[in-house]
């Protein structure tokens, strides 16, 4: 898929992350080096801090960066709705406001997830046809990355929300380059087994809906946990509870394994020497699981895209997340979602018309 | 915890696994070498095959093994209820029958999970006070293994089922040696965040119940995915859908990582040499995650214990699973669960009495 539109303006919440303005501005500058063309970044936050950091990276006079001052910061520990109400002049709220009034096409924030999702949903509203937004995450898998939706926006979805997740995820997969241009991403529904009658009630009902929507979604059916990394689905959908638990547990086990391997490989001189000789192998594994490139999870289904970066994002991760936001805007993610929703709507209307006709004939 | 009772009689379904009678009998013989004392194994299945395999391992005349012939085998692909009804003389059904009539204390099967759970629940019934059984799995974690309950028995539990899972899991943790003798296992409830209001409806309601049952369960509160491998809970409880997805996905990612590392380490002569020198490190990581020892998942909460082994279990895994069954019987797992259930019951009655008194006073 080519870049349909070259213009992209992203409002960046500079203040609310764990590492503060320094890491975010470093990432913004990195992204501007990596992404060419007509890009505008509105850096939202403390003007002094932003200027200082821009100077540090030699981007002080870059015309692609605009500063929008905000006097407050929402902390990680604050309660979402309360923070949203009491900190109207926070970098996060101001960034969302800029998207709301049309001054920005999308938002990047590495701040308080709850506040971002709540304020984003309330201020930007869901797209027509979408009841609840969903968080999508690109997960590295050897050979072929995949997208997991929802990783935490909606822990108690209804079956129709799961169909929406499939549409949102498939369109994001196209835009993020998970599938080749023109291809329909293969969508699997995560379950506790693939046999008939397996799954919880939600999964069973979503399975029926998805089977009836194959003209819009390339639905591959139920998949079980083994198939997440051993299979070839481009998009894996699940409720936001399971997705969140899964994503965070996977991060945890990767961290544990990395730590253990490092400890063991450095525990004596022989092992250290061996590790040095086979260093390329460890780098090879790392290269086959490119995590940094996909460190932003977009909140899909709102009228303007919000990309949520990890709270502890470093320069590379911020640049990666910003790259995702730019890609989604340029490739018109939301327009593409709207088209699929229109198809689903049309299908539903046709079905209704046939039913009503049948009813009239029977009367 | 010492061995309270030394006697244990386990009925083993020899036929229904992926690898057939050979692997199961090999595992049985291995377990008899590893576990001393008064053990009896009833090998249930084709008499000829069992005898042949026992001869192979030099256990043909071992008085600890008894053969119970069964003429049928339930295949992995069969539908549970149908298989249960049509194959009354299958090794699995006969093994369950032996436990039902009191001829065996517990059952080990590596066969069709659905059939085992359905027949086990119907024939053996849940313990008084338990509505639904739960599958527990010991998961290796560096430093301190933990138990995940439920990994698939009940995909749509009610909040009270989650409290039962906590009791079942904590008692299993004590018996399996996850905690030191006399210690209360630390129980965490898996959620999509630990802040107030996080979790799906089920988790939120289970959280309230667990908070009110701290005299029976050492409840540590909500934990999120990061804490599964980075934290120190001895027992992690969740619904059977999430648990099953999580367990299988973890197995999948471990398999992927192992495969990738092997490929990379053998891709050229230098790396191969390096890997040879640091071989001890890889063995070290493996030793810190002892998978084989815990390859059986008990179906907890039935009147007789059923241990489910992996369908593809090899000798070591069968021996490990059988070791778990023996341990649970000897350490009187079900008696210990009953005591906790009685405490919960007593607490509920007290509460009711106080409420009724208050009502009478107010009238």
UniProtKB/TrEMBL annotation, chains A, B:
Main location as per UniProt: cytoplasm
Pfam families found in the cross-reference section: FA_synthesis
Record field: catalytic activity: a fatty acyl-[ACP] + phosphate = an acyl phosphate + holo-[ACP]
Subcellular localization, as worded in the UniProt entry: Cytoplasm
Pathway: Lipid metabolism; phospholipid metabolism
Example of a GO MF term: phosphate:acyl-[acyl carrier protein] acyltransferase activity
EC number: 2.3.1.274
Keywords associated with the record: Acyltransferase, Cytoplasm, Lipid biosynthesis, Lipid metabolism, Phospholipid biosynthesis, Phospholipid metabolism, Transferase
UniProt entry tagged with the keyword Lipid biosynthesis: yes
NCBIfam families named among the record's database cross-references: plsX
Name recorded for this polypeptide: Phosphate acyltransferase
Source organism of the structure: Intestinicryptomonas porci
This protein's encoding gene: plsX
């Amino acid at each position: 898929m080519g870049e349909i539109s070259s213009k992209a303006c992203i409002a960046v919440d500079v203040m609310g992350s764990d590492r503060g303005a320094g890491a975010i501005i470093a990432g913004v500058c990195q992204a501007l080096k990596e992404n060419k063309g007509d890009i505008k970044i509105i850096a939202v936050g403390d003007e002094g801090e932003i200027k200082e950091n821009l100077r540090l990276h030699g981007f002080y006079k870059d015309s692609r960066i605009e500063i929008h001052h905000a006097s407050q910061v929402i902390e990680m520990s604050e309660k979402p709705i309360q923070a949203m109400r009491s900190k109207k002049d926070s970098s996060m709220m101001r960034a969302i406001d800029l998207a709301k009034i049309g001054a920005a096409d999308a938002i990047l924030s590495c701040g308080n997830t709850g506040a971002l999702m709540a304020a984003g949903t309330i201020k930007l509203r869901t797209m027509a046809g979408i009841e609840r937004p969903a968080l999508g995450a690109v997960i590295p898998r050897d050979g072929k990355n995949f997208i997991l939706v929802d990783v935490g926006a909606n822990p108690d979805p209804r079956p129709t929300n799961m169909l929406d997740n499939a549409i949102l995820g498939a369109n994001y997969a196209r835009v993020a380059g998970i599938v080749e241009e023109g291809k329909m991403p293969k969508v699997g529904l995560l379950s506790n087994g693939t046999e008939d009658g397996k799954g919880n009630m939600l999964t069973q009902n979503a399975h029926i809906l998805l089977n009836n929507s194959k003209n819009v979604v390339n639905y591959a059916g139920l998949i079980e946990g083994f198939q997440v990394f051993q299979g070839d689905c481009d998009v894996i959908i699940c409720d936001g509870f399971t997705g969140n638990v899964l994503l965070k547990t996977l991060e945890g086990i990767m961290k544990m394994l990395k730590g253990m391997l490092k400890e063991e490989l450095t525990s004596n001189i022989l092992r250290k020497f061996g590790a040095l000789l086979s260093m390329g192998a460890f780098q090879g594994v790392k290269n086959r699981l490119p995590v940094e490139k996909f460190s932003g999870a977009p909140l899909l289904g709102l009228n303007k895209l919000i990309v949520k970066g990890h709270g502890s994002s470093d320069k590379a991760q911020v640049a990666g997340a910003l790259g995702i936001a730019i890609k989604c805007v340029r490739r018109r993610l939301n327009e593409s979602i709207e088209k699929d929703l229109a198809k689903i709507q049309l299908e539903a209307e046709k079905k209704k018309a046939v039913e009503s006709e049948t009813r009239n004939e029977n009367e």
